[in-house]
Amino acid sequence: MANKEPVIQVKGLYKIYRLGQERVRALNGVDFVINRGEFCSIVGTSGSGKSTLLNMLAGLEKPTTGEIIIAGEHMETKKENQLVAFRREHIGFIFQAYNLLPTLNAIENVALPLTFQGVNKKTRTKRAVELLKLVGLSSHIKHKPTQMSGGQQQRVGMARALVVEPEIIFADEPTGNLDSVTSEEMMQLMRRVVYEQKQTLVMVTHDDHLAGYADRIIRIRDGKVISITEKTEEERRKMAESLRAKAQEKKEKVRGEQKG
Ligand SMILES: Nc1ncnc2c1ncn2[C@@H]1O[C@H](COP(=O)(O)OP(=O)(O)OP(=O)(O)O)[C@@H](O)[C@H]1O
Ligand SMILES: [Mg+2]
């Protein structure tokens, strides 16, 4: 990336929970920077502080001390109503549980966030269909959640998170309910979407292999950053190329199956 512009900055972050007499140092002095347009994964074992960190980045929880600067704004000093407005404007979430509404079909589920923004129905539907196509679900746009597999529902959840074109996307174990093949596909898809839409993606995972799709890998243990690795320009280019080739291969395979 030629111009590196920090979009997330974390400085001296601590989160200490009190449990009776005990103190749990969920985050114990964390510092890092994530640049615009990056896919960053945060990796660590269970209890290492990943969700605590992500929740704090998203302004869902307040740090004990430290600074979090997102898109130039300090999160730790914002009031609740300011945080709500900030999230609505800048942030999208992909959750482990995809929380789709059972009575709505795929288009309606994906279009829902646009309803809250007052976008008209025709535009909403058009955008939702575009996003469903992007996540490979063109043939399931009228399906309701119960008529789709877990992986398909997860992709609808992803389309819904992306439809409002958030600057920053936070994902906590987004492939937690998927088998390894579908997880791999989701990763490739997220990788591609971030490249194409120039968004910033921060993904929490305990899976080293999936974390490898990211441009930047932040490893945490016991609430501390133990390493930060960054892909070189050359490595990023190679990954982008190989994913394009894979997507193309898949397209051709589908085409072949339709013909035969
Ligand atoms: N509300 C809370 N009160 C007290 N302790 C908490 C609270 N939330 C988290 N913790 C503790 O903080 C530590 C980090 O928890 P966190 O949920 O961030 O881990 P994690 O890395 O997301 O784990 P997992 O992979 O299992 O989701 C753990 O020791 C946990 O028990
Ligand atoms: Mg967690």
Number of strands: 10
In percent, how helical is the residue content? 40-55%
Please state roughly what percent of the residues sit in beta strands, choosing from under 5%, 5-15%, 15-25%, 25-35%, 35-45% or over 45%.
Answer: 25-35%
Small molecules bound: adenosine-5'-triphosphate, magnesium ion
Q: How would you sum up the global shape?
A: globular
* Overall pLDDT metric: 90
**Cα-to-Cα separation, first versus last residue:** 43 Å
Q: pLDDT below 50 for ≥5 consecutive residues: which ranges?
A: none
- CATH class designation of the domain at 38-55 and 90-217 and 226-259: Alpha Beta
Report on the architecture of this protein:
By secondary structure, the chain is α/β, with parallel strands linked by helices. The chain has a domain at 38-55 and 90-217 and 226-259: P-loop containing nucleotide triphosphate hydrolases (Rossmann fold), CATH 3.40.50.300. Helix content is 41%, strand content 27%. It is built from 8 helices and 10 strands. The strands form 2 sheets. It has a 6-stranded mixed sheet. Strands 2-1-4-5 form a 4-stranded antiparallel sheet, with helices on one face. A hairpin with a 2-residue loop joins strand 9 and strand 10 (224-230). Helix 3 (106-116) packs across helix 4, helix 3 runs parallel beside helix 5 (150-162) and helix 4 crosses helix 5 (150-162). The protein is globular. The relative contact order is 0.17. The mean pLDDT is 90. Residues 50-51 line the site of magnesium ion.
